[in-house]
Amino acid sequence: MKAQSTRADLSRRSFLATTASAAALTVVGTGCRQEGESRTMAKGGKIPIGLQLYSVRSEAQKDLSGTIAKVAKMGYQGVEFAGYYECKAKDIRKMLDDNGLVCCGTHTAMETLADENLAATIEFNKVLGNTYLIVPWLQPSETNPKETWLGYARRFNVLVEKVKPQGMWVGYHAHQHDFAPLDGTTGWDIIASNTSRDFIMQLDSGNCMDGGGDPVAYLKRYPGRAVTIHLKEHSAKNPKAMIGEGDVKWAEIFQLVRAAGTTRWYIIEEEKDAVPPLQGAKISLNNLKKIRT
What we know:
Blueprint: H1 7-22, H2 35-42, E1 49-52, H3 57-62, H4 64-74, E2 78-81, H5 89-98, E3 102-107, H6 115-128, E4 132-135, H7 145-163, E5 169-173, H8 187-193, E6 200-202, H9 205-210, H10 215-221, E7 228-231, H11 250-260, E8 265-268, H12 277-291
Parallel strand pairs: 1-2, 1-8, 2-3, 3-4, 4-5, 5-6, 7-8
């Protein structure tokens, strides 16, 4: 079987593994509030734009509060977490509130959604004001990958029902290995076709194309499942291309998202390190605002 992980994927997997357990979970604060997100969406009728903080992880590691403030000043409306840097939920919530930001998701490892950890994970996210619990990475067994993917799908269906009374969603974030051919299908297709329509398939435009997939085709195949979607550039010729500078068919993606009518957040994730992380986040946001329809 072809190797399914890039160096960046492995780095991300290690990062999430170390930060997820640290979040489990000291919780002090108020309950989940969704009115901030509703207000954000009401402005001009446009889908709001968030930043996956993994994009600026080196800065967030040094100063999470300061980094969040800088992200807000750029014009982002929300942030999605991939680790909490040993901060308490109530303190993170204050950082968000102080800067007028909404938590538009958390990338939370599968083990934090295990039965013994689920209540603490839910409570932590309630304090953040987050309703989107997104599993960022899954790796199938090499000996029986299809059954592994099916097992994940079965667990996801259970989790969807467990968190629904809390007003929350569960989802899965795309990486390139999810689109590797697998006996006429892919891991992404197995998850999507065997989970409830209430389960978020958090497509990542760049990761999908990196893995040989077509994000436009996947949005058509599974309409309405990208309740939150990651926007990332892909270019066959320029590995440093930022949003709007490569091969992603942005106009078609925006058209499909609008037609489905279910997407609540565009989330930028910029991992190329072509420029300093905060600068890359700003360029990506400015470029997206120019091409967004």
